[in-house]
Amino acid sequence: MRVEDARLVTGGGKFAADWNEPGQLYGQFVRSDRAHAEIVSVDTGAARRHAGVKAVFTGADAVRAGYVKAPHGLNFPGVNGMQTRAPDRPVLANGKVRFVGEALALVVADSPAAAADAAELVAIVYRDLPAVVSPEGALGKGAPQLHEGVVPGNLALETEAGDAAAVEAAFARAAHITRLKLEVSRVAPNPMEPRACLVRHDPADGSYLFHVCSQGITTLRKQISTYTAVPEDKIRFELGDVGGGFGQRTPAYPEYCALMIAAKETGRPVKWVSTRSEGFVSDTHGRANIIDGALALDREGRFLAMRLDWVNDMGAYVSPGSPGHIRNTTTCMTGVYRIPALYAHYRVVLTNTTPVSSYRGAGRPDIAYVVERLVSQAAAELDIDAAELRRRNFIPPEAFPYKTPTGSTYEYADLPGLLDEALRHADWKGFEKRRALSKKRGRLRGLGISTVIENTGAGQAPKDEVELELDAHGTVAVYTVSKAQGHSHETTLAMIVSDALEVPLESIEVRQCAPERAHLIGGHTGGSRTTVGAGSVCHLAALKLVEQGRALAALELGVEPSQVEYAKGVFRSSESRRSIRLGELARKGSVSVVAEGKFGSTFPNGCHIVEVDIDPETGATEIASYSTVDDCGKVINHTVVEGQLHGGIVQGAGQIFGEHIVYDPDTGQTLTGSFMDYCMPRAGMLREIRAEERPTPSKVSPLGVKGMGESGCTASLPALANAVMDALRPIAVPHLDMPLTPAKLWNAVHAARKGGSH
Amino acid sequence: MYATHYVKAKSLAEAAKLVASNPEAKVLAGGMTLVPTLKQRLAKPSHLVDIGALAELRGITAKGGSVTIGAATKHHEVATSAVVKKAIPALAYLAGLIGDPQVRNLGTIGGSVANNDPAADYPAAVLGLGATVVTNKRRIAADDYFQGLFTTALEEGEIITQLVFPVPKRAAYAKFPHPASGYAMTGVFVAQTADGIRVAVTGAGPGVFRWKAAESALGKSPKAAALEGAKLDASEMNEDIHATREYRANLVRVMAKRALAKL
Fold this sequence. Notes:
The structure holds two protein chains of two kinds. Chain A is of the alpha+beta class. Chain A contains 19 helices and 30 strands. In chain A, the strands form eight sheets. In chain A, strands 3-5-1-12-9-10-11 form a seven-stranded mixed sheet, with helices on both faces. A five-stranded mixed sheet of chain A has the order 7-15-14-13-8. Chain A starts with a helix and ends with a helix. In chain B, the strands form three sheets. In chain B, strands 4-5-8-6-7 form a five-stranded antiparallel sheet. A four-stranded antiparallel sheet of chain B has the order 9-10-11-12, with helices on both faces. Chain B has a three-stranded parallel sheet with strand order 1-3-2, with helices on one face.
């Protein structure tokens, strides 16, 4: 059991919607029911007159407050000196709506029911505009313009990475070129906990207190401050548990800032709890990338160069969580391979759709999918074993630390060793036998592999700080500004401190984003960075506490600090008969230490091997086996690591086999706005994961850990897709984009068989 | 949801009276469709008349070659009923495939049949077995009851009280669930009855229907091969973002074969 389990499984969790403030009011957002329209007028009269309604706010109020400059992180140099064109986004839409679900008014009432009833009375006159939901369509001539004059051609940024000329030269002398156009589909992250936010304004000091589902206060505070110009020290948080995030809980949403206006104007705390239906259209989406890729090989199957042309759909605005789509896909562009020449071209496009932000991996699964699909496709085209082609092109162990052609530096990975173990573990050689058995049962069996690496850790924070506070009972409080959304910080961070102090786990209490320690610096939980960053600093802080304790103990014992030894929570000296327990140092008041550290990227890597059985009569895919060998560095808690891995793998399986946000191409309406149409993965989809650890300690942090919260997802997308495409290869089905639904697979099998018969 | 009046009916007669005197009232049984509809503000009934707990609408009995199931009987009760398992195991099996454990412990057979969702499972059994829908006013043969997408022979204020299933010689159900909703993308119920073979299809078309070409083909030769040539017009199937008409037509044939194999 994890430390947090007893509380969470017995209903003791306190989530954002569980917070209440005396005298609170309830907010209901009025959302656009169309994808693109001018707002001719918003008549709030009837809503204001509705019983229980205290106020109604609109885009005019957002503009009056000056809450219009949405923060973004898309700070990459564009081609020909182009700068990111980030349009304004008033926290309540003003003048125009640009996607179905965009909030344009906020009704505040003394009950949720009154607010919901009154929201229907807000009368909006729209002038409809043609909508564009396809990113390639949005780039086309004559496409509807979302932000006239600000984002010409709907192109928010055009940027590039790598060496175009070197790639062109390599392609010119290639013996073989593999080409694939791939879509990494748009998905709704759907954390279990719907979004919720309660804001209280204190007129005495002009501060705002938030109870909100968050991945960490530092990033959210900075973004809210950027959006509203309210100073960061006036933005406070009191947080409880968070039921899932996946990146979607990081950014400052316009709704939060609109609630600030409401709390200030009404003088009462205002609470908003999203419904799942609202969440589908207003929580940021993930992925949504289209990639035209080409891989050049020589006669021996050695990779010469790779060229990728990206169209990154950002939805209607540039979200603060979007930079990973470029940064991480550049950092890991070469994958696990020595590819001498790389070039990527990106066009970041705005469409009449829900804004897109980070989602578990934030570009890492996308690039792994592209590279690993290209490699397996090349292996098939050249009739080389997919594992052998990988081995032939691996970055060799002696080449580490490896500087990639796109400028990142990978830390050590033993890729051939990893592959060998994975092939044995999955009985790669025995596949043809199993394929033959499946064939007898009328099934199409496929074998898929992915070998992946990714950058984890690091982050935008200047450093990570952790404070330890020791009390007279010997209890050590661990203060961090990172925030678990299901990650087990209370277990993992406590174990790190407990190990370093050699004291029982029960004497450690992890306190995340505590209001009284809000000044601590550090990254939010995202990008698989918490154990690498905050975790390492927990270790350093514990060592610092021992050192500080040694000096205090020396005073008490009347000896020199160098004469004091520490073990298992007790200070002793051979010069004294007395010993001093850790807690005794805090008899006259708690003892605190603050430690800090700045750690770069770690590079977890792994090999996932999947077998699938497809029923050609129905198109249904069964995952017959799933084997993994992962190097996530030193493992602190095996259950936690396994849980992260499993969750990531199944999240990838969800995207490959079912999850997909679909818009009506003409109206821009969401066609998959509920779980009736949006296919979440079920537990039965993947019944067993045979996971092996093959740790290589990282040198980046003192713990030797590597961030691994996203690696399962990164590896599973390509491994699963490769397995399905391998199953369909004997009947010559060309590349299929995710989601690989039964209907899509049946159509493809049916078409291939029909085509083959004449 | 909108404000409404919730009334827990004490008897069927009281429920019928309430519904008759309040044209905007809705009967609530398990609420598996109605409650989500209310939560999304897609319905605004004046009253919710809850008949889910009425003893007179519950229970399962077998007598004289038929099984009678009270309209408010939960799916889980049908799925685990010794009576149903013995008399019509395919019906118990079908009930065990509906939704998830939560749904099966709340949803009722009468609610499902009254709603007639085109992808619901029960209509396939009711039509496939040639059951009788008993209401507080009359008895309706299954062949007359289902009238397409969410449409039935029920009149305003008419409440289903029982489903009477004749016990077939043999019956089987094969379902391909919708990957997202778990409803039937296509479900085929095949029954060998005293009057011959009946094949009922749910999920594929705008409402549950009998695949009569398959019935006559199987009447001549009750083998899977007979289904190969049975006429099925794909253009009459549903098409949406999840599946084409052709795919659903294929599933009808495949699921019919699989049901037949289980007979």
